[in-house]
## 1
Amino acid sequence: MTVLVTGGAGYIGSHTVLAMAEAGESVVVVDNLSTGFSAFVPEGVPLFIGDAGDENLVEGVISAHDVKSIVHFAGSVVVPDSMRDPLAYYRNNTMTTRSLLNAAVKCGVSRFIFSSTAAVYGNPDQVPVPESAPTRPLSPYGFSKLMSEIMLHDVATAHGMNYVALRYFNVAGADPKARIGLATVGATHLLKIAVEAATGQRAKVDVFGTDYPTPDGSCIRDFIHVSDLAQAHRAALSYLRDGGQSATLNCGYGRGYSVLETIEAVRRVSGRNFAVQYAPRRPGDIMTMIADTTRIKSMLDWTPQYDNLETIAKHALAWEEKLFHERHGDLQQAASA
Ligand code: UDP
């Protein structure tokens, strides 16, 4: 009873593979290493280098390893890139999911966990946002994920598959032991930018908008620690194994921190008073995104361990220091090997 994890060498995928391997689960990874790192896949976990949409490869892996469940992370995640090159996103996300589902159906895989995103909501009418909120993505990225959700729903209904689609809010932090973390070159996420500033890799952090009608004028986000998110995938798998029905669940903590509070947390835990510059609003930004977590809390046996902004900042910083000072060269080598 092996679990196939696509994109298991990437940021969230590798934390999930690590959590599963540590729990004694039999796991195999398919990853094309376009943004992932082979060094992130734990020893003893087979890694097949290739596309999650390569049906021959995936069917071979499913048969050879008796795969009964798929956790599907592989995909592209940069919103502005999706605006510039929408077809790349519909290929890498929507079409890849279609091919993967086709292989899963052919091989009788009965459980599927899908990486979705709060970007499917677009600009929400209410926060915290419940799963029943209208889905109005603002980018091809959001649409590519929403289209995948719709396919998954239809395939599950037609073919007796059960699935959990997890809609991630703002994923941040790193493995508490700093074994793995976010290593994508050019990542634009706030916590990543702030820890780069704290480690002297950039001169300042821009705050995109300080005139929002929020308590301190900056945007508010529901940051979730990547290791808690990894455990949410394990909980989703247990739920399906116990006979749970298909579900779409928000994955956040249900509380928000402002951009300024987040930057302050990084300054505090690092002890480095890097420069912060107030800048104009970033086009397309949503003011406040917070998950309504009622459904995930009632359906999954999932208790977050790191629901604390300073803890998230501390782990992100420890990883960034390690990445910057020790491992960057190795990772690049591993990525191009
Ligand atoms: N942000 C910022 N400066 C940065 C990066 C991000 O002020 O250098 C803000 C951004 O405008 C948004 C919030 O931080 O309000 C979260 O942005 P991020 O790109 O991390 O995630 P998003 O919520 O856009 O997916």
## 2
Amino acid sequence: MKKWFAVIGDPIAQSKSPEMHTSWYENDGIDAAFIPIQVKKEELEKAVDSLKLLGVSGFCVTIPHKQSIIQYLDEIDETARLMGAVNTVVRLQNGKLKGYNTDGDGFVRSLEEVIGEEHRDQSVLIIGAGGAARGIAFALKNQGYENITVSNRTVSKAHDLVDALGIGKAISNDEASETLNQYKILIQTTSAGMIYGDTDLPFSIDDMSTEAIAADIVYNPLMTPFLQHASNIGATIVTGIGMFVHQGAIAYEHWLGHYPNTKAMIEKLTENVK
Ligand code: ATR
């Protein structure tokens, strides 16, 4: 039987997942379809039951369902449970639906594709303490990054994050701004800078080191104000495209058993959003 996959969210029209996965099926000779489905918040439970009934092989979950979907799944992977968020659902042999979170690992693969593994002992600053920051912090910790600091507008949330994961320390955005040049790897996880022409950043980044490695999780625009500044001063940049592609590739591997070609996909999508 032909396999079919989906991505559910609201809005969904902007999602690049269908294009990405369909292109991988073509490259890998897999007979499958990938469908974007708009699911309103109040219809999530019905949608999950319907997907299950109709025999979906797996699906991606995006805003605003990443947290709320947990209650409707049969099993949750340990990492996703700790994150409190699911972005990938796999239909198991017995028909049950299991939730995973591939965002954090996707980020680390994207980062290390650019900078290698030799910076794991360097100081890392994660800006933001939301769901994305939590996944990234956990994945970095698991890969052996030892020196992680989390800054957030609401400092109590940064404290909650470092306490929950048992990592590094929490600071305010003001403190981060003042000590910015002490960090080698800077990871921007807030939604600031997502909108074209929006130059609002969580705080001043004038003191960024020229030796820094600056990564953003936002990929539209590709060059966020944060990355633009980093690029202007000659720092290394890691765009959000890599994280998007690798989180999808890890999902693909869960569903189909092998890792797709991420390099060509990153190049293609980078060209498209430029
Ligand atoms: P996600 O799951 O995508 O990480 P989230 O959980 O809503 O989204 O988290 C958003 C993050 O962006 C938070 O760290 C938030 O800071 P607060 O916890 O103080 O709300 C941060 N954020 C969003 N807009 C911001 C802004 N204009 N300035 C500073 N931080 C901002």
